[in-house]
Amino acid sequence: MRPFHRFISFLAIFLLFAAITPCVSAFTISSVKVDPDGYQAAGTPVNLSFAIDFASTGNETFLTSDELQMSTNLVNPRWTPVLMLNGMETSLPSKNGNVMILPGWYLSYPSTERVQVRVKLTGTMPADSVTDRNFLKIQELDSGSAIVSTASLGMPDLPVTTRSAPLQKTTTKKPATKTPTPVPVQTSTQKSPLWIGAGIAATCGAALLFTRKK
């Protein structure tokens, strides 16, 4: 009987540890879409959609005593969550405000079930001076409000514009063009034919005088 009692004691201890071993739940964010994407100025309307998938190494997808807290730094946000259980859609209560909490019993199912939460979030971009700039921050909190796990999606930073130095106008000095000095053209000047005319006139006068003497 002693071996039987030992077996019973071992089985009781094993069941005790199995009973107090907590379920370790985990979540991942997927299918994130931000419209419009990239940096947006303050006051720009933004639509954000994402999915939260749950996996468990224990016997349930999420601890009933825990809660899923979602927060955003968008202005005037509105949350619209939908529970997907094995492909079947169930609407969850919508909420306005920067924080939305889903109780654990919304998300707690046997680990063999396929559980997903799809969320649509709308709001407007905050001022650039806001210190915390997260589109989304999700935390799993235990029954004592201690953080079990966290995931976040930050907003794009303000693009940094580098000021370029003013353009300096540079004047290109043109090379001095040397104007060629005109070379004087030597032209041969013909002598005036006055002396020729004077000679002819003298000859004619002498001839006339000679003919008169005859």
Structural account:
The chain is an alpha+beta fold and 214 residues long. The protein has helices at 2-20, 104-107, 194-213, and strands at residues 25-35, 45-56, 67-71, 75-85, 88-91, 95-96, 99-103, 115-124, 134-141, 147-154. It is elongated, with a radius of gyration of 52 Å. The N and C termini lie far apart (202 Å). Mean pLDDT is 76; it is low at 3-23, 185-198 and 200-214.
Main attributes of the structure:
four-stranded antiparallel sheet, alpha+beta, Immunoglobulin-like, 214 residues, six-stranded antiparallel sheet, disordered C terminus
Global mean pLDDT: 76
Strand content: 35-45%
Structural class: alpha+beta
Q: Tell me the name of the CATH class of the domain at 21-154.
A: Mainly Beta
Q: What fold name goes in the CATH topology slot of the domain at 21-154?
A: Immunoglobulin-like
**Poorly predicted parts:** 3-23, 185-198, 200-214
CATH architectural type of the domain at 21-154: Sandwich
Could you give the order of the helices and strands?
HEEEEEEEHEEEH
The global form is elongated
| Proportion in helices | 10-25%
Q: Cα-atom Rg, whole angstroms?
A: 52 Å
> What can be said about the biggest beta sheet?
6 strands, antiparallel
Cα distance spanning the termini = 202 Å
Count of individual beta strands: 10
Q: What is the tally of helical segments? A: 3
